[in-house]
Each structure stands twice: as structure tokens, then as C-alpha cells.
Design goal:
Elements: H1 4-17, E1 21-22, H2 47-50, E2 60-68, E3 70-71, E4 74-75, E5 89-98, H3 103-117, E6 125-130, H4 142-148, E7 157-160, H5 162-165, E8 166-168, E9 173-184, H6 188-193, E10 207-220, E11 226-239, H7 240-247, H8 260-270, H9 278-299, H10 308-327, H11 339-346, H12 352-355, H13 357-391, E12 396-397, H14 399-409, H15 413-422, E13 426-427, H16 429-447, E14 449-451, E15 455-456, E16 463-464, E17 471-474, E18 476-484, E19 487-494, E20 496-497, E21 511-514, E22 519-528, E23 531-536, E24 547-551, H17 553-577, E25 583-588, E26 593-598, H18 605-621, E27 626-632, H19 633-638, E28 652-658, E29 661-664, E30 679-688, E31 691-698, H20 699-719, H21 726-761, E32 764-766, E33 769-776, H22 780-793, E34 798-806, E35 809-816, H23 818-822, H24 827-835, E36 841-844, E37 848-852, H25 859-871
Parallel strand pairs: 1-2, 6-7, 12-13, 16-20, 33-34
Antiparallel strand pairs: 2-5, 3-4, 5-11, 6-9, 8-9, 9-10, 10-11, 14-18, 15-18, 17-24, 18-19, 19-23, 21-22, 21-24, 22-23, 25-26, 26-31, 27-28, 28-29, 30-31, 32-33, 34-35, 35-37, 36-37
Helix pairs in contact: 3-4, 9-10, 9-13, 10-13, 13-14, 14-16, 17-18, 21-22, 24-25
This protein binds adenosine-5'-triphosphate and magnesium ion.
Adenosine-5'-triphosphate binds at residues 69, 76, 86-87, 90, 92, 209-212, 237-239, 241-242.
Length: 872
């Protein structure tokens, strides 16, 4: 039996023998495509080639691509664990032809590989072909069908509809029919009962799709119509885990050597045995599946967070924790303990997981623990809701409450229902659905973007000339209209552009396009599928004219300085803190920079100073920029250039060097370090377990900060009559103030004694009780002292009721001697009642209670009220 590792290798070897270039998997986290958060298919990394924005280095390529299907168009999350063949993260084996071979080779090679090489029995195989679509004007894919007929009997070739057999990249763009290969792995007995062809694409767990061959031959336009694609593309994707399961004769992906080692360790950890209890099995599958997704996402640079891609990862982790908590009895962080096994199993094929193991474990452990605390709170909250619902005599908890639990605590409806059912309650599912729908609508409205078709003016390629120029003559190649949130903007592509498109943490350039008779503002520049897209507020009247493309130079220089500064900081941080420091994210703008890096404790103020000093020394050295463009990646590595984890690099790279700082980088940089002027670190904080963030400013921003500090000092001095020694003057003022405060306290205490005396003199006897009552202008704290002194002085038959006011705030203080309390009198009850008269409330014990309020006018009446309540 072939192992998973051998199967992965055999795929690569097979397509190598068919003259394919074997390329590495792209990172699973997509960094520079605003339309996609995670790689969800093998073709993602070839999007710019398929769209015609880039030329492939080889027309035939193949790989094993890490994919994640947890958001957007492909979202399998809710299936995972419940079935045995959908994963969040999985490997997709694929082969591509970019304008080279087409259907004939794609189908015959797929057949040759799985039947001749891997020896899957042809009688278990079925192929689907596109049945055609009259409304699109498309007929059946007879071309594909006739090729299949060379290998399969006709009753193993099945027509499929648009949903299953017509693949589209998005609302617009390349698309075409596809053919899927399905495997029937049921027992002979079952096969005899129901023929496999009846179960294809029917969600039967033993008759599953393993390979999809996509034949891209059309381009979908914004109006929905189709046109022919000039360079046809073959794009295939085969689920690696499904293939392994078929070859290892299993009926579940989790029974293969891809998952068994993880399941075994999880079993040892939790004391649960796989295969004995369906609920526990589901939970174990969820945990081992999600573990892979989370670990690889973190290794590729996506930390869990509360927004966008980070939030998706956080939710996957929470789903796993919840299953572990509910079904495997795991009340403490445990998933991170499986990481070493994962590294053993997959580290060879994916070295990034080996390199990032420590960080991955640390981040997971922290996330798990913090969510477990949330979970405990959520369970308490739910118990509160259940109690309230029962008290109100209802049998169903409200849908919006269930939704809050889902939204904030990650409680899916079924968990809430489970807990409620145990206590005899139901959940208003309709109400829940309404809340869910409302939230989805809100999200959709916020995100909806309508893209018009490109209006193409010329076939010229677009070239970035902005490393050397900030002004350049250019022509518009194409433009389109974009509508978002009812605002219209235009996207423009130039043949030559000095504008840097936002990428790698560096913001895009802004500026103007100037022609003989008009000027168009460039608001921002983005990079999408390899193209620099200029966002402009209006279209030129004469789009075909020649323009001078002018970048806002002052802004660009500030951005460059900050980008160069991140490189110098990166190096200085490694020098001061150690070589475990690795970049985990960065943001470079004109105003400053943010730099996230792995480090496991707070950076001390002394260390930050040292880092600043190192960088400032390099700035004064005025080290010139040395740049290597289109440099072979191997030679770049020899230079010792630092690469980023989770970044996709081609064969040719750009390297940016300032003396000893050497990094792979595509960004814009200062011509020499002197241009930075000076650096100042403005903050240091933690953004996740094991990841610190520093923020810093350079050049003019430092100058402005220093100006502000100096002005502040000058103001301060002015305030202190230009005292020559500011420090001594302030220290003296503090000491004086302290002494004065002590005197004031003493005077207040004396005054309290006097007032107490007056109260005693004015005391009256009512029904044998000494009533000491009145309103005093003082703080409640002092009144409390007086009340306790009076209690000591007159231990029996005593009622003290004092209204007081300080700084406009009224208060009531009531105290009773113990004998009155024994009679059943209660100070707390009186203040609660009388507190209303001063628009406030309070409480306390039977012998002593206080109330605060808002209306001092009511104090007298409140005091009288209490006397009346107590002995009236
Ligand atoms: P299915 O209908 O089974 O969900 P699909 O139509 O979504 O599959 P494609 O988008 O065509 O699948 O992806 C190509 C191949 O990738 C599939 O044939 C399958 O082998 C594999 N695959 C797809 N989704 C998953 C998943 N969530 N987990 C594991 N493998 C998958
Ligand atoms: Mg699917």
C-alpha cells in the first residue's frame, strides 16, 4: 500500500514525465488579492496568467496546493467532521496548461495516472460531462464525452448541469465546462443493489468526486454574455486526501495515514477512543481537521484576530475548541499539543510548519485558553437566559438571545438548543434566522462591489517604472467603472506607471494624471492580479491622450523613508532581542510605520532605546540603497537576504540592501538612510501571544513631535513663572500641596466635631428615642465618622439621621443603636425609601445605611421622612 507521502510524490513524478514544471504550493493565506482571503483552489496562484496579465514561465505546470475552504464562494466548514470527505484545509493536486494542450491530453493523462499508474479499478470510475445550457446557447460537451468514451463504457459517462459541470472563476472572467471523475468505493453487495451511476453527485459518502478537470474556453462579460477565450486553459484539481483514501482502501479520509497519527495522539490526550461513539468521532474529526487549517494559517502569517481573515481563523479554532469542550471533555487548551505530531507528518513536504512550530503552538495555546474563558461566560449567560425564560413561564428562549450567543460567544444554534433541551426548553429558531439574515444583509450591503467591463484602448502591457521615477509619460491601456456603496469610481490601467500599487504592507501612491487640457486626481493605487490599478474620481474626456503620470512626491518620500526604516528596525531588533525575531506583519504609510514581529515577552524601554540608537546611528552613516532587480532567487539567498514566511516568491526576486540589512522586498525605498532624518519609536504593545507590535515615525513626523514637546515644555515653564529648575519647582509644589492637604483634613475634622456638638445639643426625645437629625454642609465620608462616634457615645435608644451635601451632591446617612435594630427597625430600608426624595438610592445594613442622590433640595424632606419612618 502506498503511503500518503509516496502518493504525493507519484503525482509530481507523473506530470514531470509529461513535461510539466513542478512548482511549490503558494501560501494558503492570500495577501495581495482583495477579492480573496485564502487560497481555495490550485488555480488561484495562476490567476494573473489566466487573466492574461502575466506570461507563464512554462505552459505546463503541476503542484500540490494547500487550500482552505471556509469562506466566500467555497465554504465547507459546517460539513467538516460530520462527513468524512470534506476538510477545511486540504491539498489539491493539479496540472495546468496555459494555451498549450487541451481536453484530449487532460482527460487521457488523468486516466493514465489513476488507472495505469495507481491501478484504481476502472469499473469503479464515473465521469461527468457538461450537458449544455440552452439559455446560454451552449450545447453538450460532446468533445469531452467522446474522449471519455475511449476509456469508459457509455453508462459510466453522466451528463451534469451548469451547477456541477460549468466552472466560473467569478461573476465575470474565464469560465468553461468541466468533467469530474467520481469513485464508487461501496461494497460489492451494495453496488449490486444500486448502480453507482445513480449516486454520482448525490452526496453519497462512498461515491465521491475526486478530480475535477476544468476546460476554460470562454470569458464571461459583465452583461452576462460569453465570448471565446483566446488562450484556452486546462485547470485540474484532485483532492489529495480523497485520493489517498481510495488507494488505501478506506471509506473515510480520516482512516488514512494523513489523519490517523493525529487521531491517535488526540485519543491518548483525551482518553476517548475513535470509532466507539459517533458524537465523539465527529468531535475528533473536527479537531484534527481544524488543527491543520489553523496551524498552516498561522505559519503562513495569518494570526487569529477580530477582523477579516484573522477572524475566520479565530472562528475555526473556536469551533474546534467547542467540540473538544462539549464532546471530549476538554476544559483546558489541548489542540496545540497535537502540533508536534502534525510537524512530524507534514514538515517534510511543507517546511514552513517546522520553522514556525514554536510560534504556532504559543498562539494556539493562548487563543484556546482565552476562548475557553469566553465559553464558560457564555454558558453562564445562557443559564441566565434560561432562568429568566422559565421565570416568565415561557417554553422557548428568544431568537435574538440565541443569536447573541452565536455571534459573541461562538455558540452555534445546535449547542444552544442542546443545553436548552437538557433543561426542557426550546429555542425560537425563526427569530434566530431573522437575526442571522439581517446580519448577512448588513455585511453584504457594506461589501457589495459592482465591476463594469474593462474598456480596452490598447493591447500594451502595463509596466511599473516607479522605482526610478515619480513622473512618467503614459497612456491609458484600459479602464472600468466600479460601484461600491452607491459611490462611483473608475479604475485605470496605464502602459507605464510610476504609481506603486498597495502591496506588502506599503500603501499605494496618490497623485495626478495630467494631459494637455485636463487633470485627473489619482486617489489611490492598488495591486490586483499583478496589475497596478489607479483609482480616479472621474474619467478624462480624452482617455486616449498622452498623460504625465505624477506621483505626490512628498508623500512618496515619506513612505519610502518609513519603509526603509522597517528594514533597519527589523535588523536592530534581531541584534538587540535575538534572531528569533521575524516579521509578522507591517504597515508603511506616509505618517509612520507599524511593525509586528515574533518575540515572547515585552520589549523593555531600555531595549527600545537601544534599538532606536542603532537605527539612528545607521541613519547618520547615510548608507546608500543597493538594489538587485530580477535577481535569481538562489543568488539572493546567497546574499543572506531575509525572506518572509507565507510570501510567494518567483524565480527572480528583488533584493533591497542597506549595508548589512538585506531583505527580499518589492517596495519603495529611500535612496540612502540619511533621508530618514531620525527615527522615534512611539509605542510597543502585544497583539497576540508571542507577537509584539512597535509603531515608529521618521523625518518630518519626528520633527513635528519634537516641536510639540518643546512647545509643551515652554508652556509648562511659563506656567511656573519660568522657574530655572523645573524639576525642583514641581517637586516643591507637590510637597507643599501635600502639606496643605493635611492641614485641610485636620480643619475638616475639627469642624466635624463642632457640628456634632451642635447636633447633640439640638437632639430631641421622641417616644423614648434620642433623635439626632439635621442637614450638614460636608462630605458623606466625614458624616459616617460622626455617625459612628454618636453610636459609641449613646449606645441605646439612638436614631441618627444626617443629610449632607458636598459639591452639589446630596447624601443621607442613617444609624440606629442595636436595641432598635433588635426591635426590627432597619436603616437600609429607610434610606431606600427616603432616597427617592433626593432622586437617588442606596442601602446598607440594618444598623447603618447611606444613600446618594442628585437633588439636594430634597434633603430636609428626606431627613424628616426617615425620622417618621423610624419612630413616627
Ligand atoms: P464537492 O462537490 O465534493 O464539495 P467540489 O465540486 O467543491 O467538490 P472542486 O471545487 O471541483 O470540488 O475541487 C476539486 C477537487 O478538490 C474535488 O474533486 C475534491 O476531490 C477536492 N475537494 C473539494 N473540496 C474539498 C474539501 N472541502 N475537502 C477535501 N477535498 C476537497
Ligand atoms: Mg464543494
Amino acid at each position: 500500500m502506498m503511503t500518503a507521502k509516496e502518493i504525493r510524490e507519484s503525482f509530481k513524478k507523473f506530470f514531470e514525465s509529461k513535461e510539466h514544471l513542478i512548482v511549490p504550493s503558494a501560501p494558503m493565506v492570500v495577501k495581495d488579492d482583495p477579492t480573496l482571503m485564502f487560497t481555495n483552489a490550485g488555480m488561484n496562484q495562476f490567476k494573473d496568467i489566466i487573466l492574461g496579465n502575466a506570461t507563464p514561465k512554462c505552459r505546463r505546470q503541476a503542484d500540490s496546493q494547500k487550500c482552505l475552504r471556509v469562506s466566500g464562494k467555497h465554504n465547507d466548514l459546517e460539513e467538516v467532521g460530520h462527513d468524512t470527505y470534506h476538510h477545511t484545509m486540504f491539498e489539491m493536486l493539479g496540472n495546468w496548461s496555459f494555451g498549450d494542450y487541451f481536453k484530449k491530453e487532460a482527460i487521457s493523462w488523468a486516466w493514465e495516472y489513476i488507472v495505469d499508474v495507481l491501478k484504481i479499478d476502472p469499473k469503479d470510475l464515473y465521469a461527468t460531462v457538461f450537458e449544455g445550457s440552452p439559455e446560454e446557447g451552449l450545447s453538450r460537451d460532446d468533445e469531452a464525452a467522446s474522449i471519455w468514451e475511449q476509456f469508459l463504457p457509455k453508462d459510466h459517462i453522466i451528463n451534469g448541469n451548469k451547477h456541477d459541470n460549468f466552472w466560473e472563476m467569478g461573476d465575470t472572467g474565464p469560465c468553461g465546462p468541466c468533467s469530474e471523475i467520481h469513485v464508487d468505493s461501496r461494497s460489492e453487495e451494495e453496488k449490486a443493489k444500486v448502480p453507482g451511476r445513480e449516486l454520482v453527485n448525490k452526496d453519497h459518502p462512498q461515491v465521491i468526486e475526486i478530480w475535477n478537470l476544468v476546460f476554460m474556453q470562454y470569458n464571461r462579460k459583465a452583461d452576462g454574455s460569453l465570448e471565446g477565450l483566446p488562450a484556452k486553459v486546462i485547470d485540474t484539481g484532485m483532492g489529495f486526501e480523497r485520493l489517498v483514501r481510495t488507494l488505501q482502501g478506506k471509506t473515510s479520509n480520516y482512516d488514512t495515514d494523513v489523519f490517523q497519527p493525529l487521531i491517535k495522539v488526540l485519543g491518548d490526550l483525551s482518553g476517548c477512543k475513535y470509532g466507539e461513539d459517533e458524537k465523539k468521532d465527529i468531535a475528533m474529526r473536527v479537531v484534527v481537521d481544524h488543527l491543520r487549517a489553523i496551524a498552516f494559517a498561522i505559519a503562513d502569517g495569518q494570526l487569529p484576530s477580530n477582523a477579516k481573515a484573522g477572524y475566520v481563523i479565530r472562528r475555526i479554532l473556536r469551533r474546534a475548541v467547542r467540540y473538544g469542550y462539549t464532546f471530549l471533555g476538554q476544559k483546558e487548551a489541548f489542540i496545540y499539543k497535537l502540533v508536534p505530531t502534525l510537524v512530524d507528518e507534514m514538515g517534510e513536504a511543507f517546511p514552513e510548519i517546522v520553522a514556525q512550530q514554536k510560534l504556532v503552538m504559543k498562539v494556539m495555546q493562548e487563543e484556546e485558553s482565552s476562548f475557553l474563558r469566553t465559553l464558560e461566560n457564555g454558558i453562564k449567560l445562557l443559564q441566565g437566559v434560561i432562568d429568566e425564560t422559565k421565570a416568565a413561564g415561557k417554553s422557548e428562549i428568544a431568537g435574538d438571545k440565541a443569536f447573541t450567543l452565536f455571534d459573541t460567544f461562538g455558540f452555534p444554534l445546535d449547542l444552544t438548543e442542546l443545553i436548552c433541551r437538557e433543561q426542557g426548553l426550546a429555542v425560537d429558531e425563526k427569530g434566530f434566522d431573522v437575526c442571522m439574515q439581517e446580519q448577512k444583509n448588513r455585511a453584504r450591503n457594506a461589501a457589495e462591489v459592482k465591476l463594469g467591463d474593462w474598456v480596452v484602448l490598447s493591447e500594451a502591457e502595463s509596466e511599473f517604472v516607479g522605482y526610478d521615477n515619480t513622473e512618467y509619460p503614459a497612456h491609458i491601456v484600459k479602464y472600468r467603472e466600479v460601484q461600491q456603496k452607491k459611490r462611483t469610481a473608475y479604475e485605470v490601467i496605464l502602459d507605464k506607471t510610476p504609481f506603486y500599487g498597495e502591496m506588502g504592507g506599503e500603501v499605494g501612491d496618490s497623485g495626478v494624471l495630467v494631459s494637455e487640457n485636463e487633470e485627473i486626481k489619482v486617489l489611490d493605487t492598488k495591486k490586483e492580479n499583478g496589475l497596478s490599478i489607479h483609482i480616479v474620481d472621474k474619467l478624462p474626456e480624452h482617455p486616449e491622450a498622452e498623460f504625465m503620470a505624477c506621483v505626490d512626491v512628498e508623500r512618496r518620500r515619506a513612505i519610502e523613508a518609513n519603509h526603509t526604516c522597517t528594514h533597519l528596525l527589523d535588523e536592530a531588533l534581531r541584534e538587540v532581542l535575538g534572531t528569533h525575531v521575524e516579521q509578522k506583519g507591517s504597515l508603511v504609510t506616509a505618517d509612520g510605520l507599524r511593525f509586528d514581529f515574533s518575540h515572547f515577552e515585552k520589549v523593555t524601554p531600555e531595549q527600545l532605546r537601544e534599538v532606536e540608537h542603532i537605527v539612528n546611528a545607521k541613519i547618520r552613516e547615510d548608507i546608500p540603497l543597493k538594489e538587485y532587480r530580477d535577481y535569481p532567487i538562489e543568488k539572493a539567498k546567497e546574499l543572506g537576504a531575509i525572506a518572509l514566511f507565507g510570501e510567494k516568491y518567483g524565480d527572480k526576486v528583488r533584493v533591497v540592501q542597506f549595508g548589512t540589512s538585506v531583505e527580499f522586498c518589492g517596495g519603495c525605498h529611500a535612496q540612502s538612510t540619511g533621508r530618514l532624518g531620525m527615527v522615534r519609536i512611539t509605542s510597543e504593545s502585544s497583539i497576540a501571544a508571542g507577537v509584539r507590535r512597535i509603531e515608529a515615525i521618521t523625518g518630518k513626523a519626528v520633527e513635528e513631535t519634537l516641536d510639540k514637546m518643546q512647545d509643551f515644555m515652554a508652556d509648562l515653564k511659563g506656567l511656573l513663572n519660568n522657574a530655572p529648575d523645573l524639576m525642583a519647582t514641581i517637586q516643591k509644589a507637590i510637597a507643599e500641596n501635600k502639606e496643605l492637604q493635611a492641614q485641610v483634613d485636620e480643619f475638616k475634622a475639627q469642624k466635624a466635631q463642632q457640628l456634632k456638638q451642635v447636633l447633640i445639643e439640638k437632639a430631641r426625645e421622641v417616644n423614648g428615642v434620642k433623635v439626632i437629625a439635621g442637614v450638614l454642609p460636608m462630605e458623606a465620608q466625614h458624616v459616617k465618622d460622626i455617625a459612628f462616634q454618636l453610636r459609641g457615645q449613646f449606645p441605646e435608644h439612638l436614631l441618627v439621621v444626617i443629610g449632607s451635601e458636598a459639591a452639589g451632591k446630596p447624601a443621607l446617612t442613617v444609624s440606629l443603636s442595636d436595641d432598635l435594630v433588635a426591635e426590627g427597625k432597619n436603616a437600609g430600608q429607610y434610606v431606600r425609601e427616603a432616597g427617592k426624595l433626593i432622586q437617588g438610592g442606596g442601602g446598607g445594613q440594618p444598623h447603618f445605611a447611606t444613600a446618594g442622590g442628585k437633588n439636594p433640595e430634597g434633603l430636609k424632606a428626606a431627613v424628616d421622612k426617615i425620622v417618621e419612618l423610624a419612630i413616627g
